[in-house]
Amino acid sequence: MSKDYPIGLFDSGIGGTSIWKEIHALLPNENTIYLADSKNAPYGLKTKDEIIALSMKNTEFLLNKNAKIIVVACNTATTNAINELRAKYDVPFIGIEPAIKPAANQSKTQTIGILATKGTLNSDLFHEKLSHFKNIKVIEQIGHGLVQLIENGDINSAEMNELLESYLKPMIDQNIDYLVLGCSHYPYLIPQIKKIIPEHIQIIDSGEAVARQTKKVLEKHDLLSNTTEASWQKFYTNANPRVLESILNHEQSVFERDF
Fold first, then answer.
1. Other C-beta atoms within 10 Å of 228: how many?
2. What is the b/e burial string over 65-74, where b = at least 16 CB atoms within 10 angstroms of the residue's CB?
3. Which is catalytic among the residues 14, 70, 147, 183?
4. Is 183 tagged catalytic?
């Protein structure tokens, strides 16, 4: 496998671009291919079998584009399908999970909040991770409707603000001091979230940790690119590319709809 082959990433939509941005910032010389399966978003409302099937389809798309490593830039796909993907395909996989550990270890109130999709919060992998923190009170909240609004480009809408207030205020009332964002779409909501929660509540997402892990695994497999040429980035979506273009601030210009 060539070191110049791209890093592949997929998500149920545009949210995983929050992970892509961290990886691209840490590894600017790496070529990347990002797949947004927005037509099937959100994954959080689908069955485990449906999530596995979509994840395999996405993986095969990226492998056909010569991806040397695949980042499952979706919490729901990771918690429901990562084991099946690793068992079936001979390529390194990077998954993302809600960053419970740093929040639990640093919490002074011993109470943290997790905002995530139904698919993530109901998964066996999530509950297995949660079982390691029995002394921490964890307030789980499904982010009903948030992914759909983000996918529609309605991040700053009144409806979005109303939903966030209804999800976050009960957490605030129960004295959380850390809020874990358990969906790769949710970092795009941080400006609105900060308007609702008190300043002392820390927000944690997985982006930087995923980027560091991606670099670590590439090094382990001797797959880090050593080219001096400018890297390229390609984005694929099976929905209207307008929102994806907007969320990338038109930094990238390659958008193809062929899957």
1. 6
2. eebbbbbbbb
3. 183
4. yes
